[in-house]
Amino acid sequence: MGLFTSNLPAEKEKWVAEIKQLASEYKLIGLVDMYGIPARQVQDIRRNLRGRAKLMMRKNTLITVALQEGDSSDILKYMSGHSALIFTNENPFKLFSTLEKTKTKMAARPGEKAPEDIVIPKGPTNFKPGPIVAELQQAGIPAAIESGKVTIRETKTVVKAGEEINKKLADALVKLNIKPMDIGLSLQAAFFENDLYEPSVLAIDEEAYYNDLIVAATHAVNLSVNACYPTKDTAGPIITKAVREARNLGIEAAVYSNELIDGIIGKACAQANALSVVVE
Hints:
The chain is built from ten helices and twelve strands. The chain has helices at about 10-25, 40-50, 60-65, 90-100, 130-140, 165-175, 200, 205-225, 235-250, 260-280, and strands at about 30-35, 55, 85-90, 105, 120, 125, 145, 150, 155-160, 180-185, 185-190, 195. The mean pLDDT is about 85.
């Protein structure tokens, strides 16, 4: 059995009604993870999304009440932690890209998992000799004193993607001004035009995708030209290729005409010069 709005206080019933109204007005309903986002950054995100998307933060129970009986109810299985709703008329790929661009780098906190491999590069630091050397070493960072400065002796991966960052490492990363955490709205799922989209589907490398399209289009044009398959894009290159090949054939066969005489004479001169070199 589902939850019923009749059991909710009047104010919460109003919030549920507002969610349902927005769900009917916008083409896309998305769930985003709000965990760990400072209040100030939430305000910045709202400002950046103004006019393009609407962000609504409500308790998970109210979101469930509002969406459990609608077409978008499947999105609820992706809800976890500090979820919020986002509404927009943009397609999910554009929304995902927009949200990724609003993310900023933050320092890691103890217990958080690394979003990617954290690599400490080799080289000198700005630290003077002191307790910092031992602190870095205890965090697994190969530090030493060289030429009066604290130096990282070799490039090292101190934690791999998905592994937990302990307190000593978190403190060391702060001192080194390394901010590995992406803080911002993370799209958990999106419901758009009766289809459900997960982040793994939406995470597209736009530059690589564009380059692949260019390569595919180039190969398609070359195939069409070589197969003499005329289209509005290949008719010109096909004619140019045919004219070039006909001219080369005419010159090789010494077919005299006003268009070919220069080429025939040029070929004869080249052959004569090559022969004179051999004779000498």
